[in-house]
Amino acid sequence: MEILELFKALILGFVEGMTEFAPVSSTGHMIIVDDMWLQTKDFLGEYSANTFKIVIQLGSILAVVVVFWKRLLSLIGLYKIKDAPKGGQLKLTHVIVGLIPAGVLGVLFEDYIDEHLFTTETVLIGLVLGAILMIVADKLGPKHPKTNTLDKITYKQAILVGLIQCLSLWPGFSRSGSTISGGVILGMNHKTAADFTFIMAVPIMAGASFLSLLKNWEYVEMNHFGFYAVGFVSAFVFALISIRFFLKLIDKVKLTPFAIYRIVLAAVLAVIIFL
Fold this sequence. Notes:
This protein is mainly alpha-helical.
């Protein structure tokens, strides 16, 4: 790997880390940056380049583990959350219930998504539709939500958020955007919806990365590993920064400013691509 190619991995890691947990679609941003500028398919090949965009998310997952390690350990009984209500604490089963819909559909439609939806045009559609959902969530969400901590999330809320999360299988829609919007519509405050989104991200993103790597392993060459490693470390560092910043920001600004950014971005890109 040449220095310039490794620098491209650093840039994509930056894009992934800074956008993964903001409701703006990290995969969509990586596709846009790569297809319109970096062109990693030229030296990685199409399948390895697409796999990189998914596997690089493992760096962001590690950042979630670092930030939420107490809560994650509590899900498997290795840590006790202080001041958690008796009988009402968030359990691993809540997370599993929330993961099932997108997990099942992701496995069933993985090939179709890889072959037909990883394009700039589909990302533009996802950016706009996701923005509309986010604006609707801010309008319809209760002014005084009753679910203001993770430990108050019900199984009904978890499964419904999981169903709404299926929209994020369309690149550009944004997993965090869809799940936070779903949580807000279902009565969570923005901070709780974001926390639940990040916790659910760990198994679903790890699973997606593993399946993509397993499926396309034959296309990943030994000299690609340096590129993957730089992207992973870059994504971890910048995700660690963005998570802490986003969690402080989300309850103050809500979702609408992010939705406006998505619409403006889609409009600018549409002009560049189609005019």
